[in-house]
Amino acid sequence: MKIVSWNVNGIRAILNKNFVQKVKEMDADILCLQETKATCEQVQIALQLVEGYHVYANASKARKGYSGTAILSRQKPLNVQYDMEVEEHDQEGRVIAAEFENYFVVTVYVPNSGSELLRLNYRSTWDLDFLAYLKRLEEKKPVVVCGDFNVAHQPIDLARPKANYNKSAGYTQKEIDGLNALIDHGFIDTFRSKYPEEVKYSWWSYRAAPEARILAGESTTFWLAGH
Q1: Most buried among 46, 86, 101, 225, by the most CB within 10 A?
Q2: How open is the CA angle 202-134-194, to the nearest 5 degrees?
């Protein structure tokens, strides 16, 4: 079983960047996408050229062209759930859960705390409710959750930890505590369990000059597996 997680930063835009060929080369059984920035219909249309997958999309209700997630699966799931059934959090298309015979696969695009950390308190509430949601799923069967968690968990996960700690979105103690809570409740960071000391970034700011991006990376994409 091969599961791939990818923040595409716009599903329609990435089609012009050899997306279809890359999907073929990855040959994933399940492909989880975040930040599709499209309606569900637009996602379905955009992915027509990707053959061999059942496609499930969730989109922002509050703001078009914002956020959004999708799951592509070779095997048809038994059931697909959208959102967390928490009205406050279910406006931006951030969660999809696909149920299979022996497990759930969840893709998530966790809210960014935003410029000047204006959404940090909301983000903290989200983290608590998302954990509760995953634990409800886990009562039925094991859960694999992957996505853009918008947090650098450890100092090794970003280029300048001291300069950014408690100052930059994605590296405040509240956000770190949110991911700690998932791990404390039995979820395993699958990458760190295999590579505890490897520096491996999954995000680079497009605001930085190209030559600076390599020095300003972060690890914000996580694969967490329940027991």
Answers
A1: 46
A2: 40
